[in-house]
Amino acid sequence: MTDATGPTTPTAEIPGFHLYDTTLRDGSQQEGLTLSVTDKLAVARHLDELGVTYIEGGWPGAVPRDTEFFQRARTELQLTHARLAAFGATRKAGAAVEEDPQVAALVEAGTPTITLVAKSDLRHVTGALRTTAEENLAMVTDTVSYLVGLGREVILDAEHFFDGFLHDPDYTTSVLVAAHEAGAAVLVLCDTNGGMLPHQVTEIIENLSARLETAGAGDARLGAHTHNDTGCAVANAISAVRAGITHVQGCVNGYGERTGNADLVTLMGDLQLKMGMDLVPAETLAETTRISHAIGEIVNMPVTTRAPYVGASAFAHKAGLHASAIRVDPDLYQHTDPREVGNDMRMIISDMAGRASIELKGRELGFDLAGEPELLSRLAATVKQREAEGYSYEAADASFELLLLDELGQVPSYSTVESWRATSQLGRDGTLETEATVKLRSDAEGEHERKVAIAEGNGPVNALDLALREALRERHPEVDEFELRDFKVRILDAHHGTDATVRVLVRTSGRGLEFQTVGVGPNVIEASWEAIYDAYTYGLYKSGV
Amino acid sequence: MTDATGPTTPTAEIPGFHLYDTTLRDGSQQEGLTLSVTDKLAVARHLDELGVTYIEGGWPGAVPRDTEFFQRARTELQLTHARLAAFGATRKAGAAVEEDPQVAALVEAGTPTITLVAKSDLRHVTGALRTTAEENLAMVTDTVSYLVGLGREVILDAEHFFDGFLHDPDYTTSVLVAAHEAGAAVLVLCDTNGGMLPHQVTEIIENLSARLETAGAGDARLGAHTHNDTGCAVANAISAVRAGITHVQGCVNGYGERTGNADLVTLMGDLQLKMGMDLVPAETLAETTRISHAIGEIVNMPVTTRAPYVGASAFAHKAGLHASAIRVDPDLYQHTDPREVGNDMRMIISDMAGRASIELKGRELGFDLAGEPELLSRLAATVKQREAEGYSYEAADASFELLLLDELGQVPSYSTVESWRATSQLGRDGTLETEATVKLRSDAEGEHERKVAIAEGNGPVNALDLALREALRERHPEVDEFELRDFKVRILDAHHGTDATVRVLVRTSGRGLEFQTVGVGPNVIEASWEAIYDAYTYGLYKSGV
Predict the structure, then answer these.
(1) Residues A116 and A73 in one domain
(2) Which pathway does it take part in (chains A, B) (predicted)?
């Protein structure tokens, strides 16, 4: 268990190979990717599940959201495997490290590990940082020593390492040696501009290793941080591993600035399944597809269908030539067993959600459906049809369970919806008003009570939510114990512009539960209504009301 | 000029390095990618412009659309550089090649080049093809000899070459030797299942080359066909090139079955700009971005923003950290000059943006703000404040430009919004109705005309869009030339549930423009209204209305 409140004794090195994830920092540099603090905490939990060694959380002090992330992480983030790292830079040129507010913010973040970026390309030292070669070395030495002296583990990211090494290998090597001597636990070789090819990575690391040996730093642990600007981020990381590095940095789903960072998910597959490295337990690797997609949902950048190992098409075969042979021996047509990464072989014309996966899902939810082939077939058909309409049960277990309960005739009905209306309007005086009306009929036996409720809200969905609560409250006061915690909208079929289909996912917590529901429709209000109504139904039912 | 009607004398080998594109055949195996014959012809023209050596058009005889493609290509496709290839298989087991209808269809396609796929993994010969090792060799020899005898150039695709070689290198080599002896111009080593890593590719090709030398086939020209299942399609092709192959197969934009084929666009950049190979004239390479996107439009699979070299984000910078240094020397922060591939460096405006990045962004949009430090400061402050409220300008250049125009006092005002209203309601009969009302006042001098418009829509945003168009149409009929093409909703600050802030991004095209606008508010309707209203304002202004 990692203690995010900060160590009192020096942080011990993590043995073995390091998978270092920087989705929350470098990944957030991707165009269009912006994470709230809550998003970051949710992603961090999934990264921990994925089995990464380090989670880089952001740059405290420089980015206000990141400062808040590290504050909240102390109480809200319990990591079981991963160690949390705060990212920052070496001290300012010409200033004392103890007085540098950026360095102070790193210390205050309270993480066991601090990752420091340092210039290692002399042209950047003089051209961008506008300081001298010597001062840059002193900045590295001072900052690393200071933080190590405070008991922190320090990882040094040597920015522009490869370009710098090609330009002036002596200087670039001296930066690494300085960091090593000052106590850095890992020296990370960064291809910051992303222009390297795999054979160059090999050659440069071999050359560097010889130089480090000569400089008495042959025992330094090396890492690699690669980008995909030549389409070789993963291959460059593999080259580095084969050249002896034992720490790779990347981002889940290859998020990152420009063309992205090395895809950590692909790398895990390659290193473990192709190169035989023992990085995570097999049962953890089998969660990769699920976790990769869950993170894609949170950051609102779905996993591309073509993603290696975890993409929806990664093990999909367009019928024809292969179909009959695949039936004989699927291994002839796949490079690895998709179950190893939790994915499935799929024939594109056949249905996706087979009976087997529904049976497994049911078991996961506590229903034994093994002896009910007809029910499984009906459910598989329903799921297939609703997925075709735009529903996605992957991230909405509660809606799937309601579907299953419905098939079993156990679906609870707390009320019947008679009608609802939501209106937003901008008045002549510039004020924005939103109100909703909900009319329900009670379903209790022998009762024919109607409930009409009206509410104002920040927006139409909020107003509908409040009006629905109001209408349910008298008979089911427990509704007030639930809170809608997250609300995600995805436009499907984007080519139709504002005339598109909308999918809404709602995450609700309360009465000891936390669950997601889904709604779909041509109208964001209707889709939201469906997801919210399901959320109250599910919440009341599962908490025994 | 290639003659697509078929040669009368043996087709001469094309000297130099071969870029072989299979977008029209293997690329079409991608899930969701379906091309009409007209699409295929249009893609082929772009591929020719791109400077590829070969264009594989499809499988005549097996796919009716492909048969038609080759028929129409004879008259409708004038290629200036590329040679057209038809793809097919070796003859059936136990049949005469002259009587094989599949082979006859290949001949009838009338292309100078025929690419034959042959089994080269013994397990596939016996397990999938269900014939003998010897018969498979005879099928290769017979089919290659027959087609070469008809004056065609034959390229042999050795299917499952790498897996086969690892399983039984003797047999796999014997297939290649048989094809070479029968007159095949190129022996293509296919990683059909895509599971290889770069170092394996190198080792296997080196091993194969020694075996070919021994077998007296050391002069054979070798090619490589790689897939991206390990995220290494491009790197594997580069490994193969470094191991001596002189023909690479791939697809534009990395289209292809499962995870896709090697991205030929990325490969062209890597081979020419990083490895110094002289594949196409510099002015052709400078068309790469345009052609890659044009093909993406035709096949209706837009180039991903993260695509190396040609993606919209490939040379985009978000971090404020870099901006001031980029102003000094852009080459410090890019791996190659984006103009070499026809792309551009782009500053992404975010809350990390300082005055330097705003100045650069202004320059990109055609405004010289270098001499206006106060304006830059005001704009930087506005951007920071609005980003804190939830706006995001990184994907909304048009909204940023409106902000800038506003600071410059140049913002156009086409009308004043008096009020609007959007209502969604579910009636007792279960029907869903949505309508919107928009009231505008004209801003034209001396006019005080009011416009009141009402519209029904699929959802409140669609209804508002339609009502706004209706209200603007009479004075500005150009509004109908714009189409809202994409609509993205992001909930910020998710822990507030339905009481959260909403950000809407709208992509609009029309009148030769394509741009994005952003709106923010507690209400999805209000945020959408803002983004749509900005879209019409921007579109009308930029197109000179």
Answers:
(1) yes
(2) Amino-acid biosynthesis; L-isoleucine biosynthesis; 2-oxobutanoate from pyruvate: step 1/3
Instruction: Give the pLDDT band of residue A381 (cuts 50, 70, 90).
Output: confident
Residues found in chain A: 545
CB contact under 8 A, B198 and A235: yes
Do B294 and B344 have their domain in common? no
Kindly state whether residues A131 and A25 are assigned to the same domain: yes
Is A541 part of any domain? yes
A125-160 pLDDT, tens per residue? 998 889 999 999 999 999 999 999 999 999 999 999
Shortest CA gap B482–chain A (Å): 11
Final residue belonging to a domain, choices A251, A280, A309: A280
Give the tens place of pLDDT for each residue, B379-419. Answer: 888 887 887 777 877 668 899 899 998 888 887 778 889 99
Is A308 within 8 Å of chain B by CB?
Answer: yes
* Structural domain contains residue A271: yes
Res. B70: pLDDT tops 50: yes
Count Cβ neighbours within 10 Å for each residue of A182-196 and write b for 16 or more, e otherwise: bbbbbbbbbbbbbbb
Please, which pLDDT band fits residue B331 given cuts at 50, 70 and 90?
confident
How far CA A324 is from CA of A320, A332, B30, B229, in Å, comes to: 8, 11, 19, 22
**Residue B106 distance to chain A (closest CA, Å):** 17
Q: How confident is the model at residue A447 (pLDDT cuts 50, 70, 90)?
A: low
d(CA A254, CA A265): 8
Q: Say whether A32 and B395 touch across the interface (CB within 8 A).
A: yes
Confidence of residue B7 (pLDDT cuts 50, 70, 90): very low
Residues with Cβ within 8 Å of residue B134, at least 6 apart in sequence: none
Q: Tens of pLDDT along A474-494?
A: 889 999 999 887 777 777 654
Residue B66, domain extent? 18-298
Shared domain for B237 and B362, answered yes or no, is no
In a domain, A218, yes or no: yes
DSSP 3-state of A321: helix
Rounded Cα–Cα distance for residues A511 and A514 (Å): 9
Query: Does the beta carbon of B179 lie under 8 angstroms from any beta carbon of chain A?
Result: no
The number of domains in chain B is 3
* Closest among A249, A244, A195 to A87, alpha carbons compared: A249
**Whether the predicted pLDDT of B478 surpasses 90:** yes
Neighboring chain A residues of B305 at a CB cutoff of 8 Å: 31-32
Give the C-alpha separation, B236 to A517, whole Å. 43
Closest chain B residue by Cα to residue A508: B497
Residue B384, chain A, CB below 8 Å: the answer is no
B471 in contact with chain A, both atoms CB, cutoff 8 A? no
B80 and B212 part of one domain: yes
| B257 contacts chain A (CB < 8 A) | yes
Domain at A491, CATH number: 3.30.160.340
The pLDDT value recorded for residue B1 is: 36
- Residue B403 included in any domain: no
Q: Which residues pair with A346 in a beta bridge?
A: A316
pTM above the 0.80 mark? no
The answer to whether residue B341 scores a pLDDT higher than 60 is yes
Q: Is the ipTM of this complex over 0.85?
A: no
**In this complex, is the C-beta atom of A334 within 8 Å of any C-beta atom belonging to chain B?**
yes
**H or E element that contains A153:** strand A153-159
pLDDT digits (tens, 9 = 90+) for B308-321: 999 989 998 876 55
Residues 42-101 of A with CB under 8 A from B: 63
User: Which residues in chain A touch residue B333, judged by CB atoms under 8 angstroms apart?
Assistant: 193
Structure tokens at B534: 């900005």
- Verify whether the Cβ–Cβ distance B254 to A465 is below 8 Å: no
User: Do the chains contact at B31 and A421, CB–CB below 8 Å?
Assistant: no
